[in-house]
Structure formats: structure tokens, C-alpha cells
Design a protein that fits this description.
By secondary structure, the protein is mostly helical. Helices cover about 85% and strands about 0% of the residues. It has three helices and no strands. Helix 1 runs parallel beside helix 2. The longest helix is centred in the first third of the chain and has 69 residues. The relative contact order is 0.05.
């Protein structure tokens, strides 16, 4: 019985050592696999980060362009050549900046024309006042000058006609 128990004990120890060695080997393999998996995860994370930076770079450029356009600088165009949604958005943004630049140019021209119109109206008003006085005085002179065919009467009548012509010109302004 002792002999069998010793033999069984040796067998159990031998089997325990074998199992322990297998467990150590499995532990080493699992540690190596976990390390490899961790390094792979870090590499994937770095790759994703680089990809995101490359993808989001045009958006930073687009944001800066939006600030420039908001500040009235329409000349700079985006250089995003991609054929994806960001590239399409960039091209549409450039078209919008061009349209805004054209509208601003037309607005400035309209404001200039409006200013010229106000100036012309003011000048016409300032010219009409003395013309009205001259016209009234010319009519009074026509009545005061003796003789229907006299040179003085023809001159005063000519002055009245020219005043009327100038009054019509200022009214058209």
C-alpha cells in the first residue's frame, strides 16, 4: 500500500509539474499575446489619429477661410482638391465667396450712384432757386421794356427762354 501510495504520489507530482509547466508556458504565451495586442492597439490608435488629422485639416482651412470672408477678404480661395464631401463643401464655399464679393461690389457701386444722385439733386435744387428768381425778373422786365420789336425786349425774352430751358434740365435731374 505504501509502495502504491508513493508511486501515486510521484505520479501526481510529476503530473502537477507538467501541468504547472504547461500553465507557465500558457501564461508566457498569453503575456506575449497581450503585449502584441497592446502594441497593435497603439499602432491602430496612432493610425486613426493620423487619419483623423488628415481628414480634419481641410475643415480647419475652411474655418479660417470663413473667418477671412466674414472679415471682407474674398480673394483667397481654398486649395482642397479632394473629391469627397469636404472637397465639395470647399468648392461651394469658394463659389459663395465669389458671389459675396460680386454682391459687395454691386452694393458699393449702388451706394456710389445713390450718392451721385443725391449730389445731383442738391445741385439741381441749388440751381433752380436762382433760376426761378432770374425767370421772374426776366418776365417783369419784358413787361417794363417799351416797344414790341425792340432789341432789349428780344434780349429779355431770350433770357426768359434760356431760364425756362435750364429749369427743365434741372427738373429732369
Amino acid at each position: 500500500l505504501t509502495y502504491r501510495l508513493d508511486r501515486l504520489k510521484r505520479l501526481i507530482r510529476k503530473e502537477s509539474r507538467r501541468i504547472a509547466n504547461e500553465l507557465r508556458a500558457d501564461e508566457d504565451a498569453a503575456g506575449s499575446f497581450a503585449t502584441l495586442l497592446g502594441v497593435g492597439g497603439v499602432l491602430v490608435a496612432v493610425g486613426v489619429a493620423v487619419s483623423m488629422l488628415r481628414t480634419l485639416r481641410p475643415l480647419r482651412v475652411l474655418r479660417q477661410q470663413a473667418r477671412d470672408v466674414a472679415g471682407g477678404q474674398y480673394e483667397r480661395r481654398l486649395a482642397v482638391a479632394s473629391r469627397d464631401e469636404i472637397g465639395e463643401l470647399s468648392r461651394e464655399f469658394d463659389a459663395m465667396a465669389t458671389a459675396l464679393q460680386e454682391r459687395e461690389r454691386r452694393l458699393i457701386q449702388s451706394e456710389r450712384l445713390a450718392t451721385i444722385g443725391r449730389m445731383a439733386s442738391q445741385i439741381a435744387h441749388e440751381v433752380r432757386n436762382p433760376l426761378a428768381s432770374i425767370g421772374l425778373n426776366a418776365e417783369l422786365l419784358v413787361d417794363e421794356v417799351p416797344g414790341k420789336d425792340s432789341e432789349a425786349r428780344r434780349l429779355v425774352t431770350a433770357i426768359a427762354k434760356e431760364v425756362d430751358r435750364l429749369s427743365k434740365i434741372t427738373e429732369s435731374y
